[in-house]
Write a structure and sequence with these properties.
Chain lengths: ~550, ~70
């Protein structure tokens, strides 16, 4: 393919973005005076700031490209990732889990595991999270260079080093504060840079109704074809969607992944922290109006021989990720192309900054202070956070070059999330809501859960067992296997934690006050009016979710 | 410090302004458009929308300072 050419004004817009984020880093440095400013943005953010950052930390360019491509491949079922696969978990975090997290004044998720269970559970999760975060960060960097090289013809090394150095500079200067600022700017750039693709696509095709009329039924519904996996584009049953995606993967990610939850910890008080994921849920529900619509528009254009639109091919393999960049090239004149490319760049770099800022916190508190230097002063920890940022970026670059020479590493990405997050959600759920779960039960449950998830991944990949054993169905896609594997890993961790807890030593109740339901005062917003209550907005969000699912049933 | 919304307003305004200028230059250009729907001049009205949203954010936050 010939690459998308950039004009002077496109380059100018991209240059302004780089100058802007670096300028913000310099501006915020003078407000980053202590370790709480650096690691938790001073715990003074409003619900809107924390909420948009919470959402944006997840809204990377990889996700935008991948989900648009997945919609081309699987149809409307991809909307499950944004609706049942996100909203219930975000609301559960805000209403039920945040009081335990925020009130215990922890600085990280492994920090909660230390208070609720013990040091070894904290270190195990800290190491697993650190490895996952740096791998994701490096592969994100590699994917960014791949996209920029394929579609814009940019040099690999320049793309990776430029963005890595920019992220290293502004995160080293002001930590989570600058990461949050750039994530919010990214949120606006993504909406202004990419939503226009959907608008222009609707104008070209005629109307939204025309879009739905021109795609097959197996691609244009959410639930009505989920009774039999063979009837829908994703080849999955409703059971896999509800248990694997809607429950385990979604709750595992949104309630325990420190990358997103760290943004809620930066809120100024408990009510604000509870509102953080609830505000984010409204915007999460709206993202399909960018990615799903764009994917369906690409599908219709590709099926229309008169449109002249077709996705790229790598040999015989269709490159589904090319859908969004090709739509940008189709609709955007010079200037707007620069804005679209900047939106993708902002997504990549904010994702990178999010991973690095989460890594530097977990490294500093849950590994360095916990194991290596228990008496470190606050000033020393601030210095260590900055060093960890630079080292994290360097390791990300090494991972990115590794991924470049060994591209199938991308396949292993799928395993990493269900390896760390799915079992951790079982541990958190049991730890927060059942008093008698023991430290050894939690530790060994996590070990079994993580081991089984990885084992199942290898077993399915190398055909040691049939995928139908995992999905309980003769027909399944890779996506269906992912959902079901997460469910089994969660279940194994859940059962193992309970069984081992029955036979091992419990923690004294007085050490669990504020950490477990039943030993923590209920969070009641007596002073607040109805529209100030997090629970009210959670119900509104849930009602919209139900309406969307019924409308697109 | 200035709230984040002020910076959001600044970047939206500057980028919107560039899009409008670029769109007006494209309007007067005689070269054949390489994209579909060129007659909509999306760069002009989309850039104008970004400028308006940017100005609203700048105006509302110009005097606000947070601790």
């Amino acid at each position: 393919m010939s690459t998308i050419g950039l004009s002077f004004v496109d380059w100018l817009i991209i240059a302004i973005y780089f100058a802007f984020v670096l300028g913000i880093g310099f501006y915020l440095k003078k407000f980053t005076k202590n370790e709480e400013d650096f690691f938790l943005a001073g715990r003074k953010n409003s619900a809107w700031v924390a909420g948009l950052a919470f959402l944006s930390a997840n809204l990377g360019a990889l996700e935008l490209l991948g989900m648009t491509g997945n919609t081309f491949k699987y149809g409307m079922y991809v909307a499950h990732f944004y609706w049942i696969g996100a909203i219930p978990a975000m609301l559960f975090l805000g209403i039920f889990m945040m009081p335990f997290y925020y009130s215990s004044k922890i600085k990280s998720i492994p920090g909660y595991l230390k208070l609720r269970f013990d040091e070894k559970t904290r270190v195990l999760n800290g190491i697993a999270f650190g490895i996952m975060t740096l791998l994701v960060s490096g592969i994100n960097l590699y994917a960014m260079a791949l996209v920029l090289h394929t579609f814009l013809g940019w040099n690999w090394d320049v793309s990776m080093w430029m963005s890595a150095i920019t992220v290293a500079i502004y995160v080293t200067m002001s930590g989570l504060l600058s990461a949050i600022f750039t994530e919010i700017i990214q949120f606006f750039l993504i909406w202004f840079g990419l939503f226009l693709v959907s608008i222009l696509g609707i104008i070209e095709i005629g109307s939204v109704n025309e879009i739905f009329a021109r795609i097959p039924e197996s691609f244009n519904t959410l639930w009505s074809t989920s009774g039999n996996p063979a009837d829908n584009g994703m080849l999955i049953s409703w059971g896999g969607i509800v248990l694997g995606l809607g429950f385990v993967l979604s709750f595992g990610y949104w309630t325990t992944d420190f990358l997103v939850v760290q943004r809620a910890f930066s809120a100024k008080n408990l009510k604000t922290a509870r509102m953080t994921p609830i505000i984010a849920s409204f915007f999460k529900m709206a993202i399909p109006f960018i990615v799903i619509l764009a994917g369906l528009i690409a599908l219709i254009l590709a099926n229309d021989p008169n449109s002249g639109f077709h996705l790229l091919k790598d040999g015989n393999q269709v490159n589904y990720d090319s859908a969004l960049p090709l739509l940008i090239a189709r609709y955007y004149p010079s200037g707007l192309v620069g804005l679209g490319v900047t939106a993708l760049l902002a997504g990549f770099m904010a994702g990178q900054a999010g991973n690095i800022s989460a890594f530097n916190t977990v490294w500093t508190y849950d590994i360095y202070k916990s194991v290596i230097n228990k008496n470190a002063s606050d000033t020393h920890l601030l210095w260590m956070g900055r060093v960890a940022t630079i080292v994290g970026v360097v390791i990300s670059l090494i991972t990115a070059y590794w991924a470049k020479s060994f591209p199938s590493i991308m396949d292993y990405m799928q395993a990493i999330f269900s390896w760390v997050n799915a079992p951790l959600f079982a541990t958190m759920l049991l730890g927060m809501f059942i008093i008698w779960i023991t430290p050894n039960g939690a530790f060994w449950g996590l070990v079994f859960g993580m081991g089984s998830s990885f084992g199942l991944y290898l077993a399915a990949k190398f055909n040691w067992i049939s995928a139908s054993l995992i999905t309980l169905s003769d027909t399944s896609s890779d996506m269906a296997v992912n959902f079901w594997r997460a469910w089994w890993a969660w279940l194994i961790c859940f059962v193992a934690t309970i069984l081992i807890s029955l036979f091992t030593k419990k923690k004294p109740k007085e050490e669990l006050v504020g950490l477990v339901k039943g030993l923590t005062p209920a969070t009641v917003d007596h002073e607040a009016t109805l529209i100030q209550k997090p629970a009210f907005w959670a119900v509104v969000s849930l009602v919209i979710l139900v309406i969307l699912n019924i409308y697109f049933w | 410090m200035k709230p984040i919304w002020y910076f959001v307003g600044l970047i939206l305004f500057v980028m919107g302004l560039l899009l409008v200028i670029s769109g007006l230059l494209n309007l007067s250009s005689v070269t054949e458009a390489k994209t579909v729907l060129p007659h909509l001049h999306a760069d002009i009205w989309w850039g104008a929308l970004m400028m308006i949203v940017g100005l609203i954010y700048i105006f509302r936050n110009r005097k606000i300072k947070i601790e």
